[in-house]
Structures are given as structure tokens and as C-alpha cells.
Amino acid sequence: MKAFVTTAWAAALLLLATGGLSHGRSAAETPCTGQIHANPGFELGTTGWTASPRTVVLGDVTRPAHTGLAYATFAGLDVTRSDLLRTTVTVPAGCDLTVRFWVRTTTTETTRSDYLNVGLAVTGIPPKTRFSLAYDGGSQWRQYSMPTGTATTQRTATASFLASETAGNGVTSFDVDDVTFTLS
Fold this sequence. Notes:
This protein has one helix at about 1-15, and strands spanning about 35, 50, 55-60, 70-75, 80-90, 95-105, 115-120, 125-135, 140-150, 155-165, 170-184. The chain is mainly beta. It starts with a helix and ends with a strand.
């Protein structure tokens, strides 16, 4: 009986010392802060990404990356084709995710026939094209943002970049860099 009382007393002291019973997130769970993709700037090539064979990740002094040395580039051949780049991350329960990315467009087009469609699919939310960029996107790096909202359960988020190029109307290249997946 004495051992039981001593054990119960020790457990009660432990609860008082640690602040009582745990509610919500445990210390081992991922906090809702920070960037969660291992290769947002393509410095490791296509590691962490699924890419079409022609989606090139490169560094070029005449067309420098937004930051670092590498970026993904799409289209630019004046042929009818599509290039796809996508990645999926896990969003912990109770966290909001914001996907931010930078795009630069280089073109000889004068009408909209080449596109970069940027989509975001999140568990429990219908997939949606968030941006449809064309020749008028600008030759300087521009940042875009896609928030997902907060959910009470863990979910996945897939960001996709689909470039569609049509032959005969000029050449358009879409460059993408610094695709960050930030929890808050």
C-alpha cells in the first residue's frame, strides 16, 4: 500500500511540475511555422518534385535565378506541347499553408496562346487553377501567393505548374523559382 501511495504521489507531483495533462499538440508534432519543402529553389535539381522530361532546372548568368543558382523553366520551343512540374506536401492538423512562388516570362508572343497554369489541390477542397499566366506576365520576377486555409485534420497539398505552348505564335518561356510552402 505504501508503494502505491508513493507512486500516486509521484505521479501527482509530475503532473503539477509539467503543467498538468497535455491538450492539443504534443511537443513531438510539427509546429505551425516555417517552410516545409526541402527544395523550394530547385538547388537540388528536381529532388522533391515530379517533372516532365523537358522541365529544365538550371542556372544561367544571362537569365539568373530569383535567388540561388537554379530555377525551373518551361516551354520556349515554339512547338505544341505541355510541361508539368508538381509536388505534394503534408499539412499538419490545425495549420494554415501558404504557397508562394516567383515567375518570370520571356516571350515574342503578341497574343495569348502560351500559358502557365498554376494549380493547388488540397485534401477536402476541389482542385483549382489559381493563376493562368501568359505572355503579359513580365520579364521581371513577380511573386504570387496561394493560401489554403486552416483545417482541423491533417491534409495534403499539391502545387502544380502546367505550361502549355502552341506552335506558330512566338516563343514563350516561363521560369519558376522559390516555391515556398510556409505553415502558420
